[in-house]
Each structure stands twice: as C-alpha cells, then as structure tokens.
Amino acid sequence: MASHIAGYPRMGPKRELKFALESFWDGKSSAEDLQKVAAELRSSIWKQMSDAGIKYIPSNTFSYYDQVLDTTALLGAVPERYNWNGGEIGFDTYFSMARGNASVPAMEMTKWFDTNYHFIVPELGPHTKFSYASHKAVSEYKEAKALGIDTVPVLIGPVTYLLLSKPAKGVQKTFPLLSLLDHILPIYKEVIADLKAAGASWIQFDEPTLVKDLDSHQLEAFTKAYSDLESTLSGLNVVVETYFADVPTEAYKTITALNAVTGFGFDFVRGTKTLDVIKNVGFPSGKYLFAGVVDGRNIWANDLAASLSTLQALENIVGKDKLVVSTSSSLLHTAVDLVNETKLDGEIKSWLAFAAQKVVEVNALAKALAGEKDEAFFSANAAAQASRKSSPRVTNPEVQKAAAALKGSDHRRETNVSARLDAQQKKLNLPILPTTTIGSFPQTIELRRVRREYKAKKISEEEYVNAIKEEINKVVKLQEELDIDVLVHGEPERNDMVEYFGEQLSGFAFTVNGWVQSYGSRCVKPPIIYGDVSRPKAMTVFWSSVAQSMTSRPMKGMLTGPVTILNWSFVRNDQPRFETCYQIALAIKQEVEDLEAAGITVIQIDEAALREGLPLRKSEEAFYLDWAVHSFRITNCGVKDTTQIHTHMCYSNFNDIIHSIIDMDADVITIENSRSDEKLLSVFREGVKYGAGIGPGVYDIHSPRIPSTEEIADRIRKMLAVLETNILWVNPDCGLKTRKYAEVKPALTNMVAAAKQLRTELASAK
C-alpha cells in the first residue's frame, strides 16, 4: 500500500529559512548563503520522508516566499513596473514582487483559501507576456534525485492559477482571466517536458479551486486544460490534488473524466461528504485515489482506527493497489516536529501530531492496509484518543453553561452607531480625518531580548516591567511628536497578538517551536485550544492604564477578537468551532468591561481573521457569518455609548461580506486597502452606505517602501470621493511590528502631514 505527502513546512524546525531570508534582505548575507540554507532544509525534508517509508514524496513545495509567486515566476508573468528584462527570474525581481522596493509597491497579498497563509496575487491582462522564466521545479527534482530520492514535482494547476489571479491595473475588472489559458499552457508543456526528460514518473497538479462553487464555464476550463496537456503528459503519471473541503458532484465528475490524469487527491478530513460522492457517482476504473485522511491543517493526533475504517471503505471501491494513503492537504499549515517540544505538558503532548508525526501516521496507515499493522503504535494511539475524551481538564461546566445561555439574544448595543459617534465625539473632541495606527510598533532586538530574558527568569519582574514601561513611554512620546490623534501603546509586552491572550486564558496550551509560516519570513506560533475557555484574571488593563497615564490623548485598549483568536489557533476538534468561539467571546467581554472601568475610552477588538474563516462554499457562509459576527458583538454589547469600539481587518477580500461587517456594529473599523489597489473602495462606489467610522489603510506596512505625503494624500482624496468626511479615519494598513523605526517614523510623518493637508483643503473648500 502506497503513501503520499501533499506538501511539507518549509521554514525548518527552528525557523532556519526565516532567519536566512531576513539576513539576506538586510544585506548581511549573500544569495549563496540563502541558497545553501534552503538546500540543507530541502535535503533534510526529503530524507526524513524517505526514511519514514513514504513512496510519493513531493518536491517544488519549498518556496522562498510563496508557491503562487513561484508560479508567476515560472510563467514570466512579471508586472511591467518591476522592469524585468527577461531571462531567468532572480531574487531582485522575485522579492520586489513580494515585498516592493524603494520605487515600486509590492503585488497584492491575500489569504490562501480559508487559511492564515498568504499568497501573492498574480496581476494579469490581455497584454501579459508569458515565458518559461523559472526552472525551479526541474532543478529541485534533480536536486532530490542526486540524493537518491525520486520525488513527485508539485505545480499549481493552470486553472487554479488563473482563478486566483486578478486583472492588472488598467485592465477591465470584467476581463476573463480564463481566456489566458491558451497563453500559459505552452509554458506548462515546457516544464512537463523538462521534468519528463529529467526522469520524473509522477507530477502533482494542485487544483484546490475545484472545492469551490464553480460554474460550467470554469469547469470546462479544467477539461480543456488537461485535454490540451494530454499528449505532453503521455508516459507520466499525473495526480490532481484538491483540499480544504468537499469536491462538489459536478466538479468530481469533471476531473474524474480527465484522460490525462492518473490519480485524484481528495480531503477526507474537511471533505466529510466526499466519500458519499464517490459511492454515489463511482470511481473511474484503473485510476488511483489519493485519500487525504491525515489532517494537514491541525495538530491533533490522527484517530488511526477511524481513518483505517474510512480507508477500508475506499479500498472496497477502488481496489487495494489503487488506494494511496495521504495527508488532507500540504502540511505547510501545521507545526514541524513535536520532538522539539520539551516543555509541553505530557498528557496534552500525547494528544498531538505535528508534520513529522503525521508523516509517520500516513505510513502506519498504509502499512496497516497492506496487512502490516503496527499493533503497539495503534494501541498507543487508541489510548491517547481515550485519554483526551475523558480528561477533566478539557471540560468546564460553568463555561459551557454560560456559553449555552448566549443563544437567546443577538447582543447588540442599545443605541445606534450614529448616536454613539456623536456622544463619543463630544468626549474625544477629535479633528476631522483623525489619525491613528493599528496597534503594534517595531519589535526591536532589545525588546525581544527583554521578553526572552524575562521568560528565562534571567531578569526580575520589576526589571521587566520597568523596561516595558520605558518602551511604552518611547512609543507614546513618538506618537505625540508626530501629532497622531488616537494613540496606541505599541504592544511591547506581546510577541504575538493571539499567543499573548491565549497564554492568559484557560483551555490553551503553548509550544516552544510550533511555528507556522504566515507569509514570506513571517511565522506565527498558534496556541492550542484543548479545552473550555475562560479568563482567570484581567489581561491588558495594567499596561493600557500605564500607557493612558503617560498622555492626555486617547489611548486605545488593544484586544484580539474571539473569531481571530479562534481562526489563528489550533482549535479542538471535539466540539463545533462556534461553541469554542462563544466561550472566547465571553472572556474578551470581561476584559472589555474591565478596560472601560479603568477609564479606557477607545477599545480596539481586532478581527483580522474574520473573513479568513469564511467557508469555501456559498451554502455554508451564512451560518458562519452569523455566529462569527454575533461573537464579536458579544464582546462589547455592554459598554457605554461614549466608549468607542474599534475593530481591524486585513489582507482578505472584504467586498463580498461588507453587510456582515456593517452588522458587527463597531464604531470604527480600520481595514486593509492600499496593497489591493483600493479594491475595498469599489464597494462604496457601488452604493453601499456605511455610517460608522472607517479607516481604509493609506499605506502598506508589509513593504519596507516609504510612501510620500502626496501619495498618501491622493489615497485619502480617493476615499473622500466615496466616504463622508466625518466618518473617515487615516491609518496604515496593519500593525507596525514587522517594520523598523527607520521606516516607520518617515512613513507616519508623511501620513500625518497628508491628513493635515486634506484638512486644510477641506476647510478652504467650504
């Protein structure tokens, strides 16, 4: 029985790639140094899977930034502004597309389906020139082969690539991106021919858009693409991988009818209905089924007995020799290796499996199907499953009772937002176009050292508190010097916006090295929600009060919202996600009310990940949005009219959920806008009325580029064309923790100058 891994984390067990990338970007190391680290990581990953007995090992899943950007490089689809002159795409052009440079902005970044991973959105149009401009897929296949390991090269499928793209600037929004299929297929043919010549026997095409609601025209594109590639693929085995949800019946019928395709990969973890589709429609004779039964997106140990039962049901349909045990998706979305977690509670650790352990699980299931079941391994797994179900640390009856009681109300504030804004303005006395930032300020090396030494007990609590107070004071004074209207304390006590809160809530566990890539070199360490959630004590009141005491200007209390904490954690899978979210909402509600009692008049409850959790199918969206928006309202339904509630969202397409955003009933929302070419503003041009305060980001903080005052002023003018003057705020796209002060100070200086310039223009126009 064969085994397969759809993809693997690329940062390394100790974030080796992250540090190599940042050293290269800072000019402290060479391209050769970066490439050496990357080669060592790839070699280690391939050898690990080979040693574990995996038959189908992926290559070309490694990336210096993002696999969609890699595909853009492969196709030579470089936007003109980067002045690429052809040939093999090098690091300068590649990283300029990802991060921008001193003269041009980066390409848009958005969420990869419903995950916290981000991809760089291709910009295409009728005049895009395609060429075979990156030989990475072939070189990595050869690299593995030289180590004695035959791999399955993985490519983003041509149809998914086009469906994830957007019309380039200046191209009509209605431009049919699928019309470019005939332009990119010749490049795919060249890559396939090179892989075949190098000795590849299998190729994997990732086509995850097949799980979405596709119309007949979009489905026909799959038939066209793989029919066109058929002769080039002759002599190769081809697997088309889908993941993250069920494959709808019509999409299933479309792909299983493709002659060029040898095998089909399906997610049987999130795709709970796929087995029924296979039973009802049938499976093509002689084809392989890659059964994704080991979860690629969570860290819970697989229920081996349940997975074996699913596999046996599939075996009866497709035959023993055509069934391949696989992960439900790439393991990119999980942590690397549980072996590195020396401080994790032993009982909780027994319930978990990171990427390295999931590789072992896949192989154990494949062996069990082949009649070589490791009884000891399966027995230990069953004991861990039973331990988790019966553990008293998982359940808190009081929390469950409080969450159940929420169902009778929609938890709205008593006064409408217009009246609240009037009451808040009387108290806050802000100018028009008030300026603010999103929360965090740069996390300096010194600041990280202080937190690290405090955790290691190398400095006292008093020394730690004094150091953090000093950092807050520096941030407050800087904002006052810049003349920002509503201040933040900069979050120097926090390494991560979700981890910080999870560490102070019950029902959470934490790792030391459980890092997961979010984008580029940015890694997060998601908390593990293993049980019922409650708040033992106040979490932010002390630091917010300290910060407010340092200034007469309004100081935001900074919280992470319940939906974002949920979506950016590894969530328990033994109860519905909405039940866990309601528990978190109650905990944040207590914190909001304590902040208000402490005199904090502006409280930001970030819901950066609300859109990210939106189901991939339209039929499931309404239910999710109902409980997600309700969870946010629970957090602040009890505050006074004069307490201003902000929220923040970033790096997703918000236009299709704008009415749900309005229904959140926040007083002010700050939202990503600049990197997506002001896509958000189009919804207001189309007539959506928004009466609360809103701050579409005026510059992109994920790029080191510093925008000019005039550039920011121009963005504000575009906003004023569709939004009322009295509701518009001026702010960056997101928090500033990933930037340096040398970038932040001039950018914020220009932002404030632009706001003042527009205030003068508006006053003179009266």
Automatic annotation (TrEMBL):
<keyword id="KW-0808">Transferase</keyword>
<comment type="function">
    <text>Catalyzes the transfer of a methyl group from 5-methyltetrahydrofolate to homocysteine resulting in methionine formation.</text>
</comment>
<keyword id="KW-0862">Zinc</keyword>
<dbReference type="Pfam" id="PF01717">
    <property type="entry name" value="Meth_synt_2"/>
</dbReference>
<keyword id="KW-0486">Methionine biosynthesis</keyword>
<feature type="binding site">
    <location>
        <position position="734"/>
    </location>
    <ligand>
        <name>Zn(2+)</name>
    </ligand>
</feature>
<feature type="binding site">
    <location>
        <position position="18"/>
    </location>
    <ligand>
        <name>5-methyltetrahydropteroyltri-L-glutamate</name>
    </ligand>
</feature>
<protein>
    <recommendedName>
        <fullName>5-methyltetrahydropteroyltriglutamate--homocysteine S-methyltransferase</fullName>
        <ecNumber>2.1.1.14</ecNumber>
    </recommendedName>
</protein>
<feature type="domain" description="Cobalamin-independent methionine synthase MetE N-terminal">
    <location>
        <begin position="3"/>
        <end position="317"/>
    </location>
</feature>
<feature type="binding site">
    <location>
        <position position="606"/>
    </location>
    <ligand>
        <name>L-methionine</name>
    </ligand>
</feature>
<feature type="binding site">
    <location>
        <begin position="438"/>
        <end position="440"/>
    </location>
    <ligand>
        <name>L-methionine</name>
    </ligand>
</feature>
<feature type="binding site">
    <location>
        <position position="663"/>
    </location>
    <ligand>
        <name>Zn(2+)</name>
    </ligand>
</feature>
<feature type="binding site">
    <location>
        <begin position="522"/>
        <end position="523"/>
    </location>
    <ligand>
        <name>5-methyltetrahydropteroyltri-L-glutamate</name>
    </ligand>
</feature>
<feature type="binding site">
    <location>
        <position position="650"/>
    </location>
    <ligand>
        <name>Zn(2+)</name>
    </ligand>
</feature>
<feature type="binding site">
    <location>
        <position position="672"/>
    </location>
    <ligand>
        <name>Zn(2+)</name>
    </ligand>
</feature>
<feature type="binding site">
    <location>
        <begin position="438"/>
        <end position="440"/>
    </location>
    <ligand>
        <name>L-homocysteine</name>
    </ligand>
</feature>
<comment type="pathway">
    <text>Amino-acid biosynthesis; L-methionine biosynthesis via de novo pathway; L-methionine from L-homocysteine (MetE route): step 1/1.</text>
</comment>
<dbReference type="InterPro" id="IPR002629">
    <property type="entry name" value="Met_Synth_C/arc"/>
</dbReference>
<feature type="domain" description="Cobalamin-independent methionine synthase MetE C-terminal/archaeal">
    <location>
        <begin position="433"/>
        <end position="756"/>
    </location>
</feature>
<feature type="binding site">
    <location>
        <position position="606"/>
    </location>
    <ligand>
        <name>L-homocysteine</name>
    </ligand>
</feature>
<feature type="binding site">
    <location>
        <position position="648"/>
    </location>
    <ligand>
        <name>Zn(2+)</name>
    </ligand>
</feature>
<dbReference type="InterPro" id="IPR038071">
    <property type="entry name" value="UROD/MetE-like_sf"/>
</dbReference>
<keyword id="KW-0479">Metal-binding</keyword>
<dbReference type="GO" id="GO:0032259">
    <property type="term" value="P:methylation"/>
</dbReference>
<feature type="binding site">
    <location>
        <position position="659"/>
    </location>
    <ligand>
        <name>Zn(2+)</name>
    </ligand>
</feature>
<keyword id="KW-0028">Amino-acid biosynthesis</keyword>
<feature type="binding site">
    <location>
        <position position="568"/>
    </location>
    <ligand>
        <name>5-methyltetrahydropteroyltri-L-glutamate</name>
    </ligand>
</feature>
<dbReference type="GO" id="GO:0008705">
    <property type="term" value="F:methionine synthase activity"/>
</dbReference>
<dbReference type="InterPro" id="IPR006276">
    <property type="entry name" value="Cobalamin-indep_Met_synthase"/>
</dbReference>
<dbReference type="GO" id="GO:0008270">
    <property type="term" value="F:zinc ion binding"/>
</dbReference>
<feature type="active site" description="Proton donor">
    <location>
        <position position="702"/>
    </location>
</feature>
<dbReference type="GO" id="GO:0003871">
    <property type="term" value="F:5-methyltetrahydropteroyltriglutamate-homocysteine S-methyltransferase activity"/>
</dbReference>
<dbReference type="Pfam" id="PF08267">
    <property type="entry name" value="Meth_synt_1"/>
</dbReference>
<dbReference type="InterPro" id="IPR013215">
    <property type="entry name" value="Cbl-indep_Met_Synth_N"/>
</dbReference>
<feature type="binding site">
    <location>
        <position position="116"/>
    </location>
    <ligand>
        <name>5-methyltetrahydropteroyltri-L-glutamate</name>
    </ligand>
</feature>
<comment type="similarity">
    <text>Belongs to the vitamin-B12 independent methionine synthase family.</text>
</comment>
<feature type="binding site">
    <location>
        <position position="491"/>
    </location>
    <ligand>
        <name>L-methionine</name>
    </ligand>
</feature>
<keyword id="KW-0489">Methyltransferase</keyword>
